[in-house]
Amino acid sequence: MKKAIYPGSFDPMTYGHLDIIKRAAKIFDELTIGVLDNRAKTPLFSVEERVKILSEACKDIPNVKVESFSGLLIDYAREKNFHVSIRGLRAITDFEYELQIAQTNRLLSGGDLDTIFLTTSLEYSYLSSTGVKEIASFGGDLSKCCPEFIADLVYKKYNVKNPKFRREGN
Ligand code: PNS
Question: Domain 3-125 in CATH: superfamily?
Fold first, then answer.
């Protein structure tokens, strides 16, 4: 069985992530989304919330599982027997950072963990979790960025109203 891990912070999940998930799930028999629990950072959503959001967003993709991990990716991969890590590449600006992670993981794992890059679909190449948070914090429109249930959760975190309802005068 061909299986892979798609690690990330997913704070929050965007349509760009979902695009990579759907395409990787077609290539591999089983795809596990590994949500990083990084205690050194203060994410907008707790790791439990992010796992729940991803599980909901992927509930109709049968070969996708969502888990959290902490520590080094190579240790988690070794424990769970993953030999392939999936990452999305949006633009050349991602490349240096991604190359560094991929090379480090290959080196630290003794060649046991390889990285496969999927190029993000062009329509999502502008998207980032950081951008989503900034747009939401100013009450901007997230309808092209992430599923509506996620947008609602992000607005709630910033205590702002979904602009859709503002337009409708509710
Ligand atoms: O969504 P992100 O924040 O770009 O994902 C980055 C991630 C989670 C893939 C990376 O930070 C990671 O794997 N962190 C776990 C710690 C680790 O293994 N570091 C060594 C590789 S540099």
Answer: HUPs (3.40.50.620)
